[in-house]
C-alpha cells in the first residue's frame, strides 16, 4: 500500500524543522544542525554539509555542520531520522577574491556563479577546470553529481552554502525536487531565517576597534557602566553612541537592539 502523505510529509517536516530550529536566538551549532537535518529530510539526502561566510574575513567559508545518515537512502529506504552522524567538515574553505580565481575548491567556483543552485556532473564537468590544477580531484564532485545551494544577502560571497552529492543515476529525481514549488518555498524560508540570524554587517565595515567596543557595551551595559568600562565620561559615551547610530543608519533608540543582534552573530 502506498503511504498517502509520504511526499508532502517530508516538506512539512523540513519546514517545521527550519521554522523551529533556525532562528536568530538559537545557538549557532543547533541552528545549522537543524538546517542540515531539514535539507536531508526534504531532499532525501544521505549527507549534507553547511558552511557559512566567516565573520572575520567576510569572504571565506567555515563549516558549521556536516551530517550523514546511517542506513541506506537514497533510495534503498531503511533509515530513521534519529540515525545520523555529526561529522567535522573542512574547517576553512577559501573563496577566491573574484570570479577569475584562483579557485582552490568547488565551493569557490559555486560561490561566484551568483546562482541559487550550482550542479556539478562529476569530475569531468567543465566547471572543474576553473579550479587550480593542483587542487582538482580532491573535492565533493568526484564520482558524483554534486549540488551547491547558495543563500546570498547582498554581498558577493554567499552568506551560507549547503552542499551534497548523489550518484549520477539518482540525480534526476533530486533535480526535480529542486525545481519544485515546495523547494522554492523552503529555500525562501531558509534564506529569510538566515538573514534574520546574521543581518548584513555591511554597516560595520570600517568601524574602529574602539567603535566595536562601544557597540559591545551598548549590547551589555548601562550608560554608566559602559562609560566606566571605556574609561570615558558619560557625555563622551553618549556622543560616541550618537555617531555610531548615524554611521549604522539606525535610530538612536534602535541602536541597543542592533548591537545585541550584532553580538549574537559575531
Portion of residues within helices: 40-55%
Structural class: alpha+beta
Name given to the CATH homologous superfamily of the largest domain? GAF domain
What share of residues are in beta strands?
15-25%
Give me a quick take on this structure:
With 266 residues, the protein is of the alpha+beta class. The protein has helices at 6-21, 28-43, 106-111, 171-178, 181-197, 209-220, 223-230, 234-248, 255-265; strands at 47-53, 61-69, 84-87, 92-93, 117-121, 145-151, 160-166.
Describe this structure in words.
The protein is α+β, with helices and mostly antiparallel strands and 266 residues long. It folds into two domains: 6-198, Beta-Lactamase (2-Layer Sandwich), CATH 3.30.450.40; 203-265. It is 41% helix and 15% strand. The protein has nine helices and seven strands. Strands 1, 2, 3, 4, 5, 6 and 7 form a seven-stranded antiparallel β-sheet that branches. Strand 6 (145-151) and strand 7 form a beta hairpin. Helix 6 (209-220) runs antiparallel to helix 7 (223-230). It starts with 5 loop residues before the first helix and ends with a helix. Residues 1-6 have low confidence and may be disordered.
Amino acid at each position: 500500500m502506498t503511504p498517502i502523505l509520504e511526499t508532502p510529509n517530508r516538506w512539512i517536516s523540513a519546514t517545521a524543522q527550519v521554522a523551529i530550529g533556525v532562528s536568530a536566538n538559537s545557538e549557532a551549532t543547533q541552528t545549522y544542525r537543524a538546517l542540515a537535518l531539514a535539507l536531508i529530510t526534504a531532499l532525501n539526502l544521505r549527507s549534507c554539509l553547511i558552511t557559512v561566510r566567516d565573520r572575520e574575513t567576510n569572504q571565506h567559508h567555515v563549516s558549521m555542520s556536516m551530517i550523514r545518515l546511517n542506513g541506506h537512502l537514497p533510495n534503498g529506504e531503511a533509515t530513521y531520522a534519529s540515525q545520523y552522524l555529526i561529522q567535522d567538515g573542512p574547517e576553512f574553505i577559501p573563496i577566491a577574491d573574484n570570479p577569475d580565481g584562483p579557485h582552490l575548491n568547488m565551493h569557490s567556483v559555486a560561490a561566484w556563479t551568483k546562482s541559487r543552485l550550482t550542479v556539478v556532473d562529476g569530475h569531468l564537468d567543465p566547471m572543474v577546470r576553473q579550479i587550480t590544477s593542483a587542487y582538482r580531484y580532491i573535492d565533493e564532485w568526484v564520482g558524483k553529481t554534486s549540488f551547491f545551494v547558495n543563500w546570498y544577502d547582498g554581498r558577493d560571497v554567499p552568506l551560507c552554502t549547503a552542499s551534497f552529492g548523489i550518484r549520477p543515476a539518482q540525480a534526476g529525481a533530486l533535480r526535480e525536487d529542486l525545481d519544485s514549488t515546495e523547494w522554492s518555498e523552503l529555500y525562501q524560508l531558509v534564506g529569510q531565517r538566515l538573514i534574520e540570524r546574521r543581518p548584513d554587517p555591511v554597516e560595520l565595515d570600517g568601524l574602529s576597534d574602539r567603535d566595536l567596543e562601544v557597540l559591545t557595551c551598548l549590547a551589555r551595559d548601562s550608560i554608566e557602566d559602559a562609560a566606566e568600562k571605556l574609561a570615558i565620561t558619560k557625555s563622551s559615551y553618549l556622543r560616541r553612541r550618537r555617531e555610531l547610530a548615524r554611521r549604522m543608519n539606525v535610530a538612536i533608540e534602535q541602536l541597543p537592539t542592533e548591537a545585541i543582534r550584532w553580538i549574537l552573530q559575531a
